[in-house]
Amino acid sequence: VDFLALPDEIWSRVLICLEPEDLLSIESVSSRFTRLTFDKTILRRVKFRSEHHMDLPDVRRFFRDTRPLAITVLDFTNCVWLPSSLLEQCIGRCLNLVALKIVNCRLSVLSVYKILVRLKSLESLEWSLFSVAQTSVSTIQKLDMRGPLPVCNLRDMYVELLESTVHVDVLLRILPRCKSLRSLHLHVVGTSIVDYTHLPVPNPLGNLDRLEFFTYTTDIVRGRCPYARRSPVIESADLWRIVFGKARELMQTFCVKATVCGNVTMRLKTPHACSCVQLSDILRGVTSCSELKQVCVTVECPTYLVRAAQLEHWEHVQELAFLSPVPIDQPTFPPGIDLSYGHFFLSLLNRCRNLRELNMTRFHFSAGFNCCKVVAESGLHHLVVLALPACALMSSGGPPPLECFSASHLTELDIRRSVPTAHSICSSCSDPHTCVSEDLVPVAKMKSLLRLTLCNLGNVNTLTFLKGCQVQELRISNLGRKGLCPYNNGLADTLRENKRLASIKLDHPVLPLGSRLLWDALSHAVGLRRVCLMSSSHNDVLDRALVFGAINKLAKLTSLHIHTNAVGVKSFNGMLREVLRLSGRESQFRLHVDSADKLDLDPDTIFSSEQSTLCRTSNFVGFAKPRNRDVSDL
């Protein structure tokens, strides 16, 4: 078959799947391919891969002549290897750009603003504010000097930022200029301790009068929420005045819900709606979550399930989280859902016929109630992602509850125990017979599973139950007792047999980072691309030879994080980098070694997506999600 003789229509379908680097290579074959690589149908969507570091001259060559004018969707997500000046130059040539993704890029604040003003057709922007040090007072002042130039057509904006005054000051200058915004999503990835004094805004702050939807999510790990350990809401009256305008009641609702959940979506136009609601308010008709595809419902009392199961408006919900009420002045949660309400709980789930994600991590059950059986027997035929509390896996002498999902189509399973805090604990989750190793054996039978997360399960003292498990992403945090790490018991066999594993997270207060068994086990997983190891021990000493030996066997590795409080972390980091440089492997992946008490946010060494899903084991099942966190990226 003469492939070169194929018509342009066929070649266009092939070329549309290629990356910029491949298009540059193929255009030199003939003048025909040169013409095709400038075609609008092929260049409509262009994505640069973070792991493919093109030479900078090649990047400039790709954006030459009329090619930039054909691009309407451009994605530079995680391309930290590109300097700000080059990014600004290349993006600025794409005058017909409609959507731009520059999360985790080196693009400066001023460059982002110039792009917003220059690209008149831009409707969607995803970007990040990471470097507090570079976002200086002079940068803020330069923005002020440019005056209130409007950004006319931008409809959708997603911003990743730190909980810092300087980043808020930037938003106070950028957001009021985006008068046409219909949707705004702020995702807080961390905090900053940089000393900075708030600069007053010289121009009157305008409101986002056309804003219809506002979403607030966070990755900060402190507070009482087990799935993300809540973040306090950013304290800035000016920022919330821009978002909510004069709707003080909506602002107050947002602040309360964000404090409890750390994850809220608000519909600001009539009829108003909030993704976080009390079931009693729904039953009384006081609040509505109609038309919202993602809802978080607090079930204050199990008896409310009786009436809730009769409501019709659950069909539109695709992502659902249930919460038990936070007890006030009580040491434990009230008794959870028991057998007497099983029928009504099943009826409610049957109403959610379009549900794809269900999060019950903070929704608790009494002993004897088989939550897994109820979910499996419900009509949730589209359910692919499930998050459960430890008390959902209380076996009463029969088969493990997870056996109900052996033949399911679940792609993600998240199981974690409620973290005891100063507020409350779930007595069922804390029972020594709840969620033991044997209860997790059915996990290996779930053939469709891509991501498995196990957190704070103190009764799990071995990993042998993972033998035969074929997940792509494995996240394990704080299993077993605090003073004894059980991971070496079964880890090697698990990794040796799993040929699909691309990402692994191992976190334990005394994870033996200096153990040959640990590094030998990791070296068996030849398909690994991302590894994160975390230990709070001050006594474990990292062995450079062991680490480097494992790295040499992991040819596909693109990211290695080691978080440890052991002595000599900085010197070890320097020595390992030097060894990697001499061996020629330094440029192949990102190495990040730091203290377990402080996760660095330098995008050169750690992406926000990696920090979220790997380092912090965040759980966004059933909640609004930050961009750039998709397990399919593996």
Automatic annotation (TrEMBL):
Transmembrane segments: none annotated. InterPro entries: F-box-like_dom_sf, F-box_dom, FBXL18_LRR, LRR_dom_sf. One of its GO terms (biological process) is SCF-dependent proteasomal ubiquitin-dependent protein catabolic process. It comes from the Eukaryota. PROSITE patterns: FBOX (PS50181). Residues 1-46 form the F-box domain. This is Putative secreted protein.
